[in-house]
Structure prediction request, 313 residues.
Amino acid sequence: MNKILCAFAALTVMTACGNKEEQLCKRAAELCQYIPDHELQEQAKDFMTADFYAVLDTMFNHLPEHEAMDHEWLHYFVTSNGGTIADYEVAGVKMTDDTHAVATIKVRQKWEDGSFDENTDIEEHQLYMECVGGQWLMSDFDGHKQNCIRHIEINRKEQALRNAMSDYLAKAIGVRYRQGQLCIPTLQIVAEEEMAEKTLVWCDCQVTWYNVAGDTLKTVSSGNHSGCMTILQKDGRPVATAFEQTSDGASFLPSAKRIFGKHYDIFQNMSSNQNVREAARKEQLQEYVRRHQLNIQYYQDHGGPAVDLLHLD
Prediction:
């Protein structure tokens, strides 16, 4: 009798385990539909842990828009790309403890009509799951959440540095120009050197005043300033305290070579390329408009055509 009871108990446990794995596989397949593909789906919040969603929300919605194109997020997540759609298959799920599990996902790209290219590789990825309030949610993908957090920290540090530079340019240099409603510098950073007590930034910058006319920023005045800026930490934030600039006229070349030193060739290539300068201006104006939630679509220099800010070239 005891043997029968033991056998029945073992069978019950095995059945329960089997049902649990089957349920987790089904849930993992559902979660796969919310793996980011160049953007974060609106419904994703209900299928991710709060901290993971917050990280992705910052990556996709609160960092400069051009970064998505720079990184393509293929470095972080399985995505469809170039007319293909990611096809997911859950190979299995392994419980790591009572509230955590890791699903092995096989991924293959298929064309939008549903067909497969026979030469397409099948890749394996790891989907991390966590049970929160009785609900299994996605908590990470391929262990890349920490990569994203590091990227956010670097971006915020760089943005704070750029804000300090822009503040200095607007207040210390912008006051010398005919003023409009907004002073928005364009920064082209040539090189940075972080020291114990300060950061040196070699840069080529454009200080521009604009007036707002409907949905257009109209240039009032503008000028270029290049050199080496000194950034100090004050009360936990970077503050620009000095800017050694290149000289005008015949003294420009010797002063530029002295100030930029080993970075001179990079500076020369950057400053002499008008296309690069305008691309940086457009990109940074777009970010400024987005960050300040301005209803602006164009910018326009005196006598020039209006340039569309809503689309990067």
The chain has seven helices and eleven strands. Confidence is low (pLDDT under 50) at residues 4-17. The radius of gyration is 27 Å. The longest strand covers residues 216-234.
